[in-house]
Write a structure and sequence with these properties.
The chain has about 300 residues and is of the alpha/beta class. The protein has two domains: about 30-130, Rossmann fold, CATH 3.40.50.10860; about 140-275, 3-Layer(aba) Sandwich (Rossmann fold), CATH 3.40.50.720. Helix 6 (about 140-155) packs across helix 8 (about 180-190) and helix 6 crosses helix 11 (about 275-295). The protein has eleven helices and eleven strands. Helix content is about 40%, strand content about 15%. It binds NADP nicotinamide-adenine-dinucleotide phosphate (NAP). NADP nicotinamide-adenine-dinucleotide phosphate binds near residues 172 and 217. NADP nicotinamide-adenine-dinucleotide phosphate (NAP) binds near residues 179 and 218.
Length: about 300
Amino acid sequence: MAGKVIDGNMLAEELSEHVHEELQQLRVSGARPGLATILVGDDHAAAAYERHVRRLAERLECEYANEHLPDDAELADVLAVIGKLNADPRITGILVLRPMPSGISEPLVYRALDPYKDVEAVHPENAGLLAQGRPRFVPSTPASCFYLLDAYLRSTDREPESFYPGTTLVVVGRSDSVGKPAASLGLQRHATVVTCHSRTNDLAAFTRQADVLIVAAGVAGLVTGDMVRDGVIAVDVGIDPIKDPETGKVRFVGDIDFESVAAKAEAITPVPGGVGPITDVWLIGNAVSAAAAALRVEPRFGFTT
Ligand code: NAP
């Protein structure tokens, strides 16, 4: 295998030390950052993610609350919970976990969030600011993609500022929470950005152009070695459940076929242990940033940029 495997666990550990330190500093100024998650229904992956975020918040000593609504909750119930959290001074960041039951309109839910607590930048105001290149919050998953890319570039003596101009970044996926913001962040760095999605004809013709490839499609093994060029830097966002036909056990794989792409890549992120661990820490970092902003204290580690 040729490609260097980027260790997301190690980078997440480093980042969590920064977040913890910033949190302690804020306490001195009287601020108490607090993150709230809203889980509607019993989606297995969303519930598992909620437990994971809770454990991390406890480890980092960040206040944490979860609001769990039943599967048959209606839009009004979700909006009532959001109204309560918006008004709660102990909560500085709110994350609405996806997927929500199909009857609940995500855009209406997002619009109800206090934009100053919307740490995943899904409120139209925050999504707009991000698209214009002056984000209030950078959503945790795309932020993590660039955090690990930047760290990898620096580890190979390349400055991100001079690396991205002139490179072709291909993003597979255009969700509001991952694909679109990842494309925006690439544009901010002056990469030439191509965004692909399920209606793209001949996906491989685009992925083969990528110097940097970010795949966030939710399709296990979608991108294979024959679809990338030699020397690509490949970032796999996917967390796709696969059931072992013999044992029936579920394990998680990425959207990139790891073995065949790693054989051609300069560097690649694994699943698990790539983007995921950094995402979780970034989310808490954004709640800390929101608390700092409320106090008019400049965040020292720049989770908002
Ligand atoms: P999503 O909302 O379902 O969006 C998936 C996107 O991929 C859509 O834009 C879709 O296109 C596109 N797509 C689907 N099939 C495709 C195909 N065959 N070819 C090209 N594009 C295709 O998913 P998401 O929330 O962005 O998440 C994507 C993946 O990342 C999932 O596996 C999710 O579990 C994972 N995830 C990981 C993290 C992390 O921290 N690592 C965080 C969030 C999500 P259309 O727009 O045309 O439908």
